[in-house]
């Protein structure tokens, strides 16, 4: 295949190398330009990936080069403004790092800008492309464990926006991205923790209801049960366990296995970049679309909002600012 999608990467820090690897291994794409404020890092990155067009000003890059795809790999506070501005420059697709944004107002503005300019927006919840979670989604959709009634996710270590954003996103993904009706949650915050320039917390728990009455539980932080993106899916005729500590990526048991744990054969994986190109060519949503990213961000924000208001939060949420930021400004945490 010809490399006909010209790529730009904004932000050449650690996570950007994962994006670069996806592009290098995608026959339909080539990295044309990169942008970063750090000139030494920019030079090293350009040499490593043989990029001839390095820029310290990303707007100059977008105005000068003909770019089709852009990866936004900066700190979280810059995700929204960079996506909103990039969408105005004739690109076809944007793959932005997680968390989607600092708050729902920013997330909504990202969706609106990309919709207005006809840009496919994807949020890099890349674990959606991991074969075990993909297989679990298919098994649940096919009724392999009967009618699902509860999903329990565990994310030991980290916080909601950095680490557990993946866990929550996976919980929504394996159940077909169904809408959530309400959320109730609580956080613990000791001192003034931050993560990648955003306010953070030490421990969080959320309980939520999908519109069809299936329930979800998410626990994250420094004192959870063991596990990282460890998800249990309970059904009327069996269960699926993902990323069991010390175990396989996926195992299941149902009537067909006689109640014994079994490990399925997994299908090959694709990358978020390949799906973005496919989504453009097939004019469909990306598996980790901006709308999926917004739904995940909304659930995280609802946990904060429930902790702030001491009550259940109905979705869609009305508060567009980060409830954690509001709590901190009010001196509550």
Give a quick set of tags describing it:
6-stranded parallel beta sheet; 16 strands; 8-stranded mixed beta sheet; Dihydrodipicolinate Reductase, domain 2; Rossmann fold; single chain; alpha/beta
Can you describe what's shown?
By secondary structure, the protein is an alpha/beta fold. It has two domains: 5-125 and 273-282, Rossmann fold (3-Layer(aba) Sandwich); 128-268 and 295-329, Dihydrodipicolinate Reductase, domain 2 (2-Layer Sandwich). 34% of the residues lie in helices and 26% in strands. The chain has helices at residues 16-24, 39-49, 58-64, 79-86, 104-116, 131-141, 160-174, 272-282, 290-309, 323-329, and strands at residues 5-10, 29-35, 53-55, 69-72, 93-96, 120-123, 148-156, 180-188, 194-195, 198-199, 203-210, 215-221, 228-235, 238-242, 250-254, 313-314. The strands form three sheets. The protein has an eight-stranded mixed β-sheet with strand order 15-14-13-7-12-11-8-16. A six-stranded parallel β-sheet has the order 3-2-1-4-5-6, with helices on both faces. Strands 9-10 form a two-stranded antiparallel ribbon. α4 (79-86) packs parallel to α5 (104-116), α5 (104-116) packs antiparallel against α9 and α9 (290-309) runs parallel beside α10 (323-329). The longest helix is centred in the C-terminal third of the chain and has 20 residues, at 290-309. It is globular and about 60 Å long. The mean pLDDT is 97.
